[in-house]
Specification:
about 25% helix, alpha+beta
Length: about 100
């Protein structure tokens, strides 16, 4: 089953991916969030560094959701995704 996972990028990061707000990652089968992020990091190295640290873990100010569910409450970057699902990347905003 070949298809794409849609990755929604926040406006604050859109400039480093050519202004796009939605990126498609083609999958041959079920993959993990980490595998999708690896593909994006290969295409857009700056995006990869903004989302994950040197160990591959999500940066603490970045939240990632698969079909609306926080991956930190699932299996983290090992959460499985299948073609047709949506990943949303959100950056936490600090303020006071």
């Amino acid at each position: 089953m070949t298809g794409a996972v849609s990755v929604r990028v926040p406006r604050a990061l859109a400039s480093i991916v050519g202004g796009e707000r939605t990126l498609d990652v083609v999958l041959d089968s079920v993959a993990t969030v980490a595998a999708v992020l690896d593909v994006l990091a290969e295409r857009y190295p700056v995006l990869g560094r903004r989302i994950r640290d040197e160990t591959g873990a999500l940066r603490r100010y970045v939240n990632v959701y698969v079909d609306g569910e926080d991956v930190r409450l699932l299996s983290g970057v090992s959460t499985e995704v299948a073609p047709g699902q949506e990943i949303q990347i959100l950056q936490s905003v600090a303020g006071g």
